[in-house]
Design a protein that fits this description.
1% strand, mainly alpha, 65% helix, single chain, 480 residues, two-stranded antiparallel sheet, disordered C terminus
Length: 480
């Protein structure tokens, strides 16, 4: 109980800081109503945070595995609930759509119910961007504090000894430092691109967190700023390649071979996919006067980085549809690095499953051969593979369940499949890329309350990597 209250106090304080930023943005745009609402809610959250800190000062409670998972589930759900009121009160969204927008931003999914961002207050745009950045930070914290130390879902790279205080003091601070440094670097490079300070701010927070929410209607090419596209593409790729290992590998705290191998593979996938998109864009344009080679390469790179990182930014309108939907869904399903803000099953798991399946087939052909289970120089065991396959089955099960719920609310079956995967893989904009004829697939805002609620919960399940959601309320998980 004490651990939960303290964690909620920290979450409340972080959300309050984000709301104060939005209040300042509202004052800058002469929106006193928005400024008052954000400042008022921030004051309430700060009061509660300080009350918990002062009231329980000096008291300690160990953070065990089971408590850790349950606290994690509570925090993700509480974050969505606390972030929703501004969307509900300032833009007149129904409660289920306000929760959907809050869940999408906080889980860095990037789906939106706003059809025209030009009518949305600047403070709300700033709040969405800040919420994505906080969600990205919370994603990394969830991995490093709870998911990885327990090996949930076959994540053996960050097994730790000692108490949780040591993890929080050393590892988590290091991750926050890298996250802040990457954010500042992205913002510094976007400022000279002449897209405007506010848009640079919002795009930086969305890019670093792999959130994918645009601060204005349209795609990145509508800015007419090639430098901004290159920068955003680069930092989406950085966000996909296990952001936290940059510091941890340098200090020798992670197995170097597997993290370098995973990141190298991700970059390779992005390069190949970007080249294919560049060729497709060039062929579609038909002439270099319509789309030059450098422009095609840039848009192909941005599109590929967006899909690999599950961010969902579009270099051009409907650009991702230049390749088949099935291929795009496979890329999104795989996702980014294990220690990153990207969604999906994660490349690390997919690679190990492929390696394990290959070894099993080889064992059938050569039953008496001696096999060493490893990927690169990283050895894995049977328990780790069982956890990985379990995570995959749970992931597919939640995808199927959400699809049935959404399709049962009158959404076409193909649309329900894509919307559910986009939510679970935290790649919401993929649904709205233009795969179907206009009007064939309903917008998120036109879906029923049960459908959007199911999608919102699926987003949270994706951030908990599903296994975390099950573990939080399963006693058997901790008896193994």
């Amino acid at each position: 109980m004490l651990v939960t209250l303290r964690a909620l106090a920290i979450l409340s304080a972080l959300l309050a800081v984000g709301m104060l930023i939005s209040a300042i943005m509202a004052l800058g745009s002469a929106d006193s109503v928005s400024a008052s609402l954000f400042a008022g809610q921030a004051a309430v959250l700060l009061f509660l945070a300080f009350a918990v800190r002062i009231g329980f000062a000096g008291r300690r409670e160990a953070l065990g595995r089971q408590i850790g998972f349950r606290v994690l589930v509570v925090l993700w759900l509480a974050g969505v609930l606390l972030a929703a009121p501004p969307f509900w009160l300032l833009t007149d969204l129904p409660w289920h759509l306000a929760l959907f927008e809050a869940a999408s931003a906080f889980t860095t999914t990037g789906a939106t119910v706003y059809g025209n961002l030009e009518t949305v207050p600047t403070a709300i745009i700033a709040w969405r961007a800040t919420l994505q950045w906080l969600g990205g930070l919370f994603t990394l914290a969830s991995i490093i504090v709870v998911l990885a130390p327990s090996g949930a879902g076959g994540t053996p790279l960050l097994r730790v000894g000692g108490d949780m205080e040591q993890i929080l003091r050393h590892r988590l601070r290091g991750v926050i430092g890298v996250y802040l440094a990457v954010t500042l670097a992205c913002f510094a490079l976007l400022l000279p691109s002449q897209i405007g300070a506010f848009d640079a701010f919002a795009l930086t927070l969305s890019t670093v967190s792999t959130g994918g929410m645009m601060p204005r209607p349209g795609s990145l090419s509508d800015y007419g700023a090639p430098l901004a596209e290159w920068v955003i593409g680069l930092f989406m790729l950085i966000g996909a390649t296990s952001l936290m290992w940059y510091r941890l590998v340098a200090t020798g705290r992670l197995g170097r071979s597997i993290t370098v191998l995973e990141s190298g593979a991700l970059i390779g996938i992005a390069v190949v996919l970007g080249a294919v998109y560049a060729i497709a864009f060039s062929l579609a344009a038909g002439s270099e006067t319509v789309l030059g080679p450098l422009d095609a390469v840039r848009e192909g790179f941005v599109t590929a980085a967006s899909l690999v990182s599950t961010t969902g930014f579009e270099a051009r309108n409907a650009g991702a549809t230049a390749l088949p939907l099935a291929l795009v869904l496979c890329v999104v399903l795989i996702g980014g690095g294990m220690f990153s803000t990207a969604g999906g099953v994660k490349l690390y798991r997919v690679a190990l499953m492929g390696q394990h399946a290959s070894k099993e087939l080889e064992h059938i052909i050569y039953p008496h051969a001696v096999h060493i289970d490893h990927l690169g120089r990283f050895a894995y065991d049977t328990d780790g593979m069982r956890a990985i396959w379990t995570a995959l089955v749970l992931f597919l099960g939640v995808w199927a369940l959400c699809t049935f719920v959404v399709a049962g609310q009158g959404v076409p079956a193909d649309a329900a499949v894509v919307a559910s995967l986009a939510s679970l893989a935290n790649a919401g904009p993929v649904y709205a890329f233009g795969w179907a004829d206009p009007g064939a697939w309903p917008a998120f805002a036109d879906m029923s309350a049960p459908a959007t609620t199911a999608l919102s919960l699926t987003m949270v399940a994706g951030r908990l990597e599903v296994i975390g959601l099950i573990a939080g309320f399963s006693a058997q998980f901790f008896q193994r």
